[in-house]
Design goal:
Order of helices and strands: HHEEEEHEHEEHHEHHEEEHEHEEH
Distance between the termini: 25 Å
CATH class of the largest domain: Alpha Beta
Radius of gyration: 20 Å
Structural class: alpha+beta
Helix content: 25-40%
CATH architecture of the largest domain: 3-Layer(aba) Sandwich
Strand content: 15-25%
Number of strands: 14
CATH superfamily of the largest domain: Gcn5-related N-acetyltransferase (GNAT)
Length: 363
């Protein structure tokens, strides 16, 4: 099953690394189940990686990150997948199943199918206190374009900053697991500056080990000192800029811009279709540093539909949703107080798009 599941996922235009068996292994504090649906000829038509975790006082929650993987307008396949998901809900006595499919907001065709199958849809979330993963994502569509054409699509200031980093002598290098300490030190510095809770080194070690060749770590160096770094995931026809970090020194070198360009060049060389810059919560506009940084690379702002869910136990889910949101806010407030942080996440262009993880289900 593993080979067929992986082959189906990686060849699907709806591919997302969070639906992979490797990612389920990264989420080691969750149980995982894999669902597949076949057509009349025995061919795979749909699949879903379902993560299950017991939440204290509430019971089991089921989560399908960036899935399911199928033609989202194939009502028959969605119905069969939903039947399997409901069966898992009975097996684990779950109080809810939450999904975040890669479906754009306002897609009435998909919404109609989902609602007929018993799903509810929440497209109102704007911040990390309200959502598991960002609904607003920045995607660079590179399929069929040369590097020169992609570079020409960048904003004038972005192209200038890339060339400026080159003139400063910034060098981008591929790093390995042995260099993870450099990345984690920068991540901790970025977290203190921008006010989010960083991941542990153990988590990044597990991510790089279990994602294997899909996980790539890069660093930008100025005068042989690392000034910024990024961790990206490549899977199927896409690359995702998952985590980024930068130091407080040598910011005038614009190393982050050259770092992104080198990673985009690699994606073009590999013939990938999409390079995703991830998301950002809250304000969408020129006063948002992340918005300026990401749109400067010629990205399109893609707003996903949000959370698609079935509350098997509606009252319990409503209580959990309130508790979850308050927990995230309190956790972040305590972290900022402990580290004497007065700023807010998202204030700097260099903040990693995956940012803090206010929910145990976040990427």
């Amino acid at each position: 099953m593993e080979d067929k599941y992986t082959s189906f996922l990686s060849s699907s235009k709806f591919c997302h690394f969070q639906q992979s068996e490797e990612w389920a292994a990264v989420k080691s504090n969750w149980k995982s189940e894999f669902i597949t649906v076949r057509g009349p000829e025995g061919e795979l038509r749909g699949a879903a990686s379902v993560l299950i975790r017991r939440i204290p006082f509430f019971g089991n929650m089921m989560y399908v990150p960036r899935g399911p993987v199928c033609d989202v307008y194939d009502a028959d396949t969605l119905e069969k997948l939903t039947g399997e998901i409901k069966a898992l809900g009975d097996k684990y006595d779950a109080f809810v199943v939450r999904m975040e499919p890669c479906v754009r907001v306002g897609d009435e065709r998909f919404s109609g199918i989902a609602k007929k199958l018993g799903y509810e849809i929440n497209s109102s979330a704007l911040t990390y206190d309200e959502e598991i993963q960002a609904r607003h994502n920045y995607e660079l569509f590179i399929d069929g374009r040369t590097k020169e054409e992609v570079f020409a699509s960048f904003g004038k200031k972005t192209r200038y900053n890339i060339r400026l980093a080159m003139r400063h002598g910034v060098e981008v290098r591929r790093l390995g697991l042995s260099d993870l300490g450099l990345f984690c030190e920068l991540m901790e510095e970025t977290a203190r500056r921008d006010g989010f809770i960083p991941r542990s080194r153990e988590y990044f070690e597990r991510l790089m080990t279990r994602m294997g060749s899909h996980a790539e770590l890069y660093g930008a160096f100025y005068e042989d000192s690392i000034v910024s770094a990024a961790l990206i995931i490549t899977y199927g026809n896409k690359a995702w800029y998952l985590y980024g970090a930068s130091g407080g020194q040598h910011r005038n070198t614009m190393a982050n811009y050259l770092l992104q360009w080198r990673m985009i060049e690699n994606a073009v060389d590999r013939g990938l279709e999409v390079y995703s810059f991830g998301g950002s919560p809250g304000r969408i506009g020129a006063d948002n540093g992340l918005y300026r940084f990401k749109t400067g690379f010629g990205t399109q702002l893609v707003e996903y539909i949000g959370e698609v869910y079935i509350p098997f136990k509606p009252v319990k889910f409503k209580l959990y949703h309130v508790a979850e949101r308050n927990f995230r806010r309190i956790r972040r407030k305590l972290y900022r107080q402990k580290n004497r942080i007065g700023g807010r996440a998202g204030a700097h262009e260099e903040e990693p798009p995956a940012g803090p993880e206010p929910s145990p289900a976040r990427a």
